[in-house]
Q: What sequence folds into this?
């Protein structure tokens, strides 16, 4: 059994005092200056195991380590603006092409309806539409006037003297000009194709079957001609316009060619006979600035309906030569 520390340190019982044999051992247990630490101030060794983690010191950045906030540079702004401009131009290009395609599709639908009405009219009268041509320089003469002797009949004249009957319009001059003043294009100097087409539409409108087909067109397309440019009223003279507000015109094939002389006159020049057996008339190949020809030939004796397209020009002038405009729309390819 161990003895108390006090006895080992040289107490009265068996100790030999400070100079005894246990004096050196007693000095080893002397209390440190300030005394022993209190038990409640000491942190147990297993505190971390009990979930009492020591607080993490906050690391503060020095002034040199702090990065200042930076804005966009001029180069970056120019790049962003350039990208926006490119995207906007692409969107505009796509949207304009979509609108153009929609306008062309609407105009082709109008051409198709006009073709259906013309074919219905020819079925109703049981013959094809006859067109009386005017004189054409180069060998085509004016078609003879119908008489009881020659038995000729023409539905549409090269230069219709009057608007369609029963419309209340006494003369062409009382109507507003259907075309703008376009230099170098057919509408600028010739109203003959417009008058021929309006006359033919008037003839078809008298047939109930054809009128029912024409009524399929919207009023904005199949409408009356204005008596004056600056008015909102319309006459009973009707025409059809395309998606660009330009009147559509009809190109008529000529009469049947006379291969030999007969009661109607001498034989026709073989150089002016088309493949379908009709003569080349002024509506097809007449002088653009005089007879209003569009410099195309009809095929299979079918009437050709033409839209001037986006540029509102049926023909393009290069010196004294006229050629069809590239953006013309046709009811069939001539």
A:
């Amino acid at each position: 059994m161990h003895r108390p520390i006090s006895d080992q340190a040289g107490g009265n019982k068996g100790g030999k005092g400070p100079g005894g044999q246990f004096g050196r051992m007693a000095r080893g247990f002397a209390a440190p200056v300030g005394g022993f630490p209190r038990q409640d101030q000491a942190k147990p060794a297993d505190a971390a195991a009990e979930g009492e983690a020591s607080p993490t010191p906050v690391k503060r950045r020095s002034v040199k380590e702090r990065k200042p906030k930076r804005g966009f540079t001029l180069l970056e702004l120019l790049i962003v603006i350039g990208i926006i401009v490119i995207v906007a131009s692409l969107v505009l290009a796509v949207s304009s092409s979509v609108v153009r395609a929609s306008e062309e599709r609407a105009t082709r639908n109008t051409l198709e309806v006009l073709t259906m009405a013309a074919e219905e009219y020819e079925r109703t009268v049981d013959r094809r539409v006859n067109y009386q041509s005017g004189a054409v320089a180069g060998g085509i003469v004016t078609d003879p006037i119908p008489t009881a002797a020659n038995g000729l009949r023409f539905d549409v004249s090269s230069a219709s003297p009057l608007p369609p009957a029963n419309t209340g319009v006494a003369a062409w001059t009382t109507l507003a000009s259907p075309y703008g003043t376009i230099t170098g294009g057919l509408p600028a100097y010739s109203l003959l194709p417009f008058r021929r087409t309006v006359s033919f539409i008037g003839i078809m409108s008298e047939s109930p079957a054809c009128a029912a087909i024409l009524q399929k067109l919207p009023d904005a397309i199949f409408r009356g001609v204005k008596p004056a440019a600056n008015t909102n009223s319309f006459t009973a003279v009707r025409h059809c316009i395309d998606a660009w507000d330009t009147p559509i015109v009809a190109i008529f094939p000529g009469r049947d060619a006379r291969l030999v002389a007969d009661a109607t006159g001498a034989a026709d020049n073989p150089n002016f006979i088309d493949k379908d057996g009709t003569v080349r008339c002024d509506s097809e190949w007449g002088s653009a600035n005089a007879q209003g020809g569009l410099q195309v030939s009809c095929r299979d004796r079918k009437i050709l309906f033409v839209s001037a397209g986006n540029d509102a020009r049926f023909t393009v002038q290069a010196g004294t030569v006229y050629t069809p405009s590239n953006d013309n729309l046709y009811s069939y390819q001539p």
